Amino acid sequence: MNAAGALRTELHSVRFRLLATLLVFMAVGLFVAGAATHAAQLKSLNDRVNAELQLPRKNLDELAKQGRPNFGGAPYTTVHDLFRTYLRNGAPGGFESVMTMLRGGNVILPAAEQPTNLNTPAVTDHVWDWSSPGQTVMRDIDLDGRQVRLAITSVSLTAGGRQDQGLLIASSEIGAQRAEVFGSMWTFALASLATLALTGLVGYLVTGRLLSPVRRLREATEATTFDDLTKRVEVPDSTDDIAQLAMNFNRMLERLESGFDNQRRFVHDASHELRTPMTIIRGYLELLRAGDPDDVDQTRMLLLDELDRMQVLVDDLLILARSGRPDFVIPAWVEADDLLEDVLNRVRVLGERQWHLDAKPGGLIRVDRRRLTQALEQLAANAVKHTTESDRISVGGAWVENDDGTPQSGRASVVRELADSASRELEIWVSDTGTGIPAEDHERIFERFGKGSNSATSEGSGLGLSIVKAIAEAHGGTVQLESEEGKGSRFVLRIPSGGKDAGGKTDDSAAADSAGRSGSEGPAVKGPPAKGPRYKGTGAAGGKPNPAGPASGIDLVSPAGGTP
Question: Are strands 332-335 and 107-108 parallel, antiparallel or unpaired?
Answer without folding.
Answer: unpaired
